[in-house]
Amino acid sequence: MVDPSGFLKSGRELPARRPVDVRIMDWREVYEEFPEKNLRTQASRCMDCGIPFCHNGCPLGNLIPEWNDLARTGQWSLAIDRLHATNNFPEFTGKLCPAPCEAACVLGIADDPVTIKQIEVETILRAFDDGLVVPQLPEKLSGKKVAVIGSGPAGLAAAQQLTRAGHEVTVYERADKIGGLLRYGIPEFKMEKSNIDRRLDQMAAEGTRFVTGVSVGTDLPVSELDADAIVLATGSTVPRNLPAPGRELAGIYAAMEYLVPANKAALGATDVEGHIDVRGKHVVIIGGGDTGADCLGTAHRQGAKSVTQLEIMPQPPEARAAHMPWPTYPMLYRVTSAHEEGGDRVYAVNTEKFVGDAHGNVRALVLHEVVSEGGRFVPVEGSSREIPAEAIFLAMGFVGVEKGPLYDELGVEIDDRGRVVRDANWKTTADNVFVTGDAGRGQSLIVWAIAEGRAAAAAVDKHLAGSTFLPAPIAPTTMALSPR
């Protein structure tokens, strides 16, 4: 039974971050180890609510109170079983998800919420160390073949579920290694790639086949895929552009043009094509989200002279405002590890133009302050100013799939927001073709990608076998908790 007074005895505690001056000298993860005693104390704060709203905050439907109490009592084998019952990759979500479950924690109404994310990641890391993560082989093979195109969290979740259902699954990835943006879009200091590799070892042992360095539709025609069903999990990868005057200047990049080669170099690759080194330069990042923070931490480790992060929205409050009621996910002022390392954050500003030097390189950015009036951002008169900028990274999100031969050959429909059109059964407008993750939903969180992958796998299994035992945690139209 849960400790009924645990939340009264202890406050919220998280692992310490390594000292800034130490961690910016390497690419290792920023957090120090968290003692088991402290973790079990944190797990004791879970109240095992009669109606656990954390389930609603999480699209996976994670059985949070159950594995919290198993962690509290040190029953790690049972804890990881309950965690894996709803989540294929808790090591990914435990490190990268912004934890909407914690925003929906009942304790969070009047106190600091339970450290759900930390308990989750410590449970899975302990499970790996104790040899509790083993291949789960299918009871029988179906004789059906599935091609999953894209190896991000949605594609991998769909692939693992379908393999366990007995289908022969092949995952195609155009990069040189499996993982999608998890591999090269997420810096090592947020998640070391050994976490991906050991999960892939499990999947390979279960029977999933991986093909890298192949762009389906270009290197391999769709017509040559030997598959009874195709799952599109290509992500939403077209970056949002900023067509301000001077955009053509050299030194202005989409965020992934910077992060991908930088992460390859950080992982030891040499002569990386397109590598951008900002050592000794004034850097400006446009966009205040997670991708912007990833650029920020990367620039610190490369030795940038200065880094300024711009955001058009006003600075968020430090506590819930009335228009962001519990249990919705609030937009709060958060200090990530990258922000803790330095740089300036400037809110409520818009880019007016980019300024170049005599050689066509960007040297500065002109911005002005804005206020919101009638749903639009209006410039504040007399607020224009110039800031130095020798490298500028656009981290303003993504606007859809990359249109090209793959979608043309399949004949799937793409809507005006760049998403592959799908029905209530995850099917596209093409026969035997399904879509999951950001390619169908649009840019979203990793926890939604895994939930989509699991649900789409259930639909594909039913399509191929006539019925399915696979769980379907969400529908294609399921939305996050919202104050509106």
Protein model, in words:
With 484 residues, this protein is of the alpha/beta class. It contains 18 helices and 14 strands. The strands form three sheets. The chain has a five-stranded parallel sheet, with helices on one face. Strands 5-13-6-7-8 form a five-stranded parallel sheet. The two termini are 37 Å apart.
What secondary-structure arrangement, pairings included, does this model have?
Layout: H1 6-9, H2 20-23, H3 36-43, H4 54-57, H5 64-72, H6 76-84, H7 90-96, H8 100-103, H9 116-129, E1 145-149, H10 153-164, E2 168-173, H11 181-184, H12 194-206, E3 209-212, E4 229-232, E5 252-254, H13 255-266, E6 282-286, H14 290-302, E7 306-311, H15 337-340, E8 344-347, E9 349-356, E10 362-373, E11 376-379, E12 385-388, E13 391-394, H16 405-410, E14 433-435, H17 438-441, H18 446-465
Parallel strand pairs: 1-2, 1-4, 2-3, 4-14, 5-13, 6-7, 6-13, 7-8
Antiparallel strand pairs: 9-10, 10-11, 10-12
Helix pairs in contact: 3-5, 3-9, 5-6, 5-9, 6-9, 7-9, 10-18, 13-14
The helical percent reads 25-40%
Number of helices: 18
Low-confidence stretches: none
The main pleated sheet reads as:
5 strands, parallel
Averaged pLDDT: 96
Structural class: alpha/beta
Radius of gyration: 23 Å
Strand order of the largest sheet: 3-2-1-4-14
Number of strands: 14
Judging from the principal axes of the Cα atoms, what is the shape? globular
Q: What is the rounded distance between the termini?
A: 37 Å
How much strand content do the residues show?
Answer: 5-15%
